[in-house]
């Protein structure tokens, strides 16, 4: 069985083509940014967001051989501002890793309000047949609230417009992460 991030990557890989426009809503250490940059290739573009200088620096170092990434030091809640500025009208895929920056300041976490704003922006511009995935790490202070808000949001999505799945291990202790996959119908 695939671990949550592996499963999230597999979901995206099935729907991403070379030349696509992709979003890493929480670039963190850059692993997802690198994955997306490789998938979309030189003809595509990745917007990688994070609110921490440290995360942007780490991600830039990991992806230094790629020229198809715009790093944005800002909240993913501001995605629409950057899409409008760059005249981008549609999105071909997105990934979120919710929680805190591994090996970073654990007091800086993703929050329900900004995550839901980002999801609204992404899903409104997501192309048909394309996917957004969310890996939810919720075993930290504030994690439960964000997890519950995201679950409530995705469960309310119109099933005629979106297919939503939840992938999780059910026999692991200590709040194991899980994946939400959303595909636009």
What would your notes on this structure say?
The protein has 185 residues and is of the alpha/beta class. 35% of the residues lie in helices and 25% in strands. The protein contains six helices and seven strands, in the order H-E-H-E-H-E-H-E-H-E-H-E-E. The protein has helices at 4-13, 31-40, 53-62, 79-85, 112-125, 143-155, and strands at residues 21-24, 45-50, 69-73, 91-98, 126-136, 162-167, 178-184. A seven-stranded mixed β-sheet has the order 3-2-1-4-5-7-6, sandwiched between helices. Helix 3 links the parallel strand 2 (45-50) and strand 3 (69-73). The longest helix is centred in the middle third of the chain and has 14 residues, at 112-125. The chain starts with a helix and ends with a strand. The model has no long low-confidence stretch (mean pLDDT 96).
Summarize the structure.
This protein is 35% helix and 25% strand. It has 185 residues and is α/β, with parallel strands linked by helices.
The shape, in one word, is: globular
Number of extended strands: 7
Largest sheet: 7 strands, mixed
| Sheet/helix structural class | alpha/beta
Note the total helix count. 6
> Strands of the biggest beta sheet: in what spatial order?
3-2-1-4-5-7-6
Beta percentage is 25-35%
Compressed to H and E, one letter per element, the order equals HEHEHEHEHEHEE
Helix residue percentage: 25-40%
Low-confidence stretches: none
Amino- and carboxy-terminal Cα gap: 27 Å
Q: Mind telling me the C-alpha Rg?
A: 15 Å
The average pLDDT value, as a whole number, equals 96
């Amino acid at each position: 069985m695939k671990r949550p991030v592996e499963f999230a990557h597999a979901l995206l890989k099935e729907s991403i083509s070379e030349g696509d426009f992709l979003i890493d809503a929480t670039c963190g250490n850059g692993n997802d940014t690198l994955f997306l940059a490789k998938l979309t290739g030189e003809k595509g573009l990745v917007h990688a967001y994070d609110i921490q200088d440290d995360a942007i620096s780490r991600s830039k170092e990991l992806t230094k051989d790629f020229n198809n990434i715009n790093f944005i030091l800002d909240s993913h809640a501001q995605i629409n501002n950057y899409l409008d500025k760059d005249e981008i009208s549609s999105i071909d895929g997105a990934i979120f890793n919710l929680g805190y920056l591994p090996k970073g300041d654990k007091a800086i976490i993703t929050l329900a309000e900004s995550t839901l704003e980002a999801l609204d922006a992404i899903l409104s511009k997501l192309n048909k047949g394309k996917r957004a995935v969310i890996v939810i790490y919720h075993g930290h202070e504030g994690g439960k609230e964000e997890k519950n808000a995201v679950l409530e949001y995705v469960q309310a999505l119109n099933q005629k417009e979106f297919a939503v799945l939840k992938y999780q291990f059910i026999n692991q202790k200590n709040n194991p992460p899980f994946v939400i996959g959303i595909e636009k119908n």
